[in-house]
Amino acid sequence: MAGLRLNHSRSRPRGGFSLIELLLVMTIVGLLLGIAVPRIGTQINSDRAARSASAVMGMLDEAAQLSVRRRTPVTVTLSSGTITVADRVTNAVLRRRSFGPESDLRGTVTFSPSAGISIFPNGRADAALTVTVSGGSATSTVTRTATGILRRN
To answer: CA torsion, points 119, 125, 129, 131, in degrees to nearest 10?
Structure first.
């Protein structure tokens, strides 16, 4: 083992980053973040609107199923950001979902017609319903025809 001899005196000490290199990297990272952050915010808003629209579609489908199962008409209404499915005869609330800041589904929901609709046990409704869900700059629309066809845009 006498042949293995390490000579540390020839090795050059390792230097760190220079200030210019560090500033250049920080500038590039700042530019990339400046481009990415607004796009991420827009994507989050559109995802929230799409998720809320899916929840509205589920509620409308569930309202039709409840009407068939109970063999009685149900009404679907919107009041203060809360969608309510109620028995049309007894006015008993069957389902309720809130779309406010305190809810997991954030966004502004509007109905057209604003009075809501009645869904009958045969699946038909007294009118077509258009529900617009907006979250930030993104909007999503759910349409239920009078014959029971659901579409999301």
So the answer is: 20
